Amino acid sequence: MKDLARIRSKKAFIIDMDGVLYHGNRLLKGAAEFVSWLEKNHKSFLFLTNSSDRSPLELAQKLSRLGIEVDPEHFYTSALATASYLASQRPGGSAYVIGEPGLIQALYDAGFTMNNVNPDYVVVGEGRGYSLEALERAVRLVLEGGRLIGTNPDLSGPSENGIVPACGALVAPIELAAKTKAYFVGKPNPLMMRHGLRRLNAHREETVIIGDRMDTDIVAGMESEIETVLVLSGVTGLEDLPVFPYQPRQVLEGVFEIPD
C-alpha cells in the first residue's frame, strides 16, 4: 500500500494543509523538508485547503512564521473557490457572510457586495464571528430567498487542542431551521479540484493529492481520477479506513516519508 517511487515521480502535487503540514501553530514532522524537496525537484505544487478564514498571503505568512517560505501563488482556498463560483453564477451579486476576513475579501475581489437585508446568497465559512444573532439572521435571510452556500462540508478539523467544529457543522443549524440544504463549493466538490489542476497547469494523470481526510481529500482525488495519498497525521486514522467504501491509493504516516 506504499510506493514512494510512484509518488516521487509525479509532476504536480495538490496538498492539504491542516493535518498534513501543521496542527494549528505546530508544524508537523518533516513538513519543512517535504516543501524543500518539492522546490528542489522542480515540482508544481498547490496547497489546496478547505479552510476559508485566511487569504493566500496570510497562509504564506503563517507558514513563514513556522519556518517554511512559500509564495502566496501556491495557495488556493475554499473562500477563493466559493467567490469564483458565485461570481460565475451571479456577477455583481451580494451576500450575507458568516466568516473571517479571508472569505469576505475573496468575495469583494470577485465583485460581490455585503448585504444583510436582501442578499442573493447567505455564505457560511469558519470563523469566530459565529453567534446566535448571526445564526438567526442567516435563517431569516434564507427563508426570505437567499441561497445557502457553505465554503466546505467539513464537519470538524484538527487543531493544536484536538478536533474543532468546521464549516459543515456551522451550516447544519441553518439547514435544519430553514429546511433547506446548502451547496458546498470546497473539497470534495470537483469544482475545487478543477481549479487546482488549472492553477498547476497539470493533467490528472501526472498529479497526486495528499490529504488527511477520507471524506474530502481522498474522495475528491478518487472522483477526479487523481492519485490519492492519505497521511495519518490528521483526522483519519488507520482504524477508520474499513468503514469507507473507497480507499486511498497509498497510506503514509506523514509527508516526512516522501523526500528521498
Observed structural traits:
single chain; 260 residues; alpha/beta; Rossmann fold; 2 domains; 6-stranded parallel β-sheet; 5-stranded parallel β-sheet
Number of domains: 2
CATH topology value of the largest domain: Rossmann fold
Low-confidence stretches: none
Indicate the proportion of strand residues: 15-25%
By CATH, the superfamily of the largest domain comes out as HAD superfamily/HAD-like
Number of strands: 15
Instruction: Indicate the percent of residues in helices.
Output: 25-40%
| Mean pLDDT value | 94
| Secondary structural class | alpha/beta
Examine the secondary-structure arrangement and name the CATH architecture of the largest domain: 3-Layer(aba) Sandwich
Q: Termini distance?
A: 18 Å
Short description:
By secondary structure, the protein is an alpha/beta fold. The protein contains nine helices and 15 strands.
Give a structural overview.
This protein is α/β, with parallel strands linked by helices and 260 residues long. It has two domains: 9-42 and 56-67 and 187-257, Rossmann fold, CATH 3.40.50; 79-184, HAD superfamily/HAD-like (Rossmann fold, 3-Layer(aba) Sandwich), CATH 3.40.50. It contains nine helices and 15 strands. The strands form four sheets. Strands 5-4-1-13-14-15 form a six-stranded parallel beta sheet. Strand 6 (94-98), helix 5 and strand 7 (113-114) form a beta-alpha-beta unit. The longest helix is centred in the N-terminal third of the chain and has 12 residues, at 78-89. The radius of gyration is 18 Å and the shape is globular. The two termini are 18 Å apart.
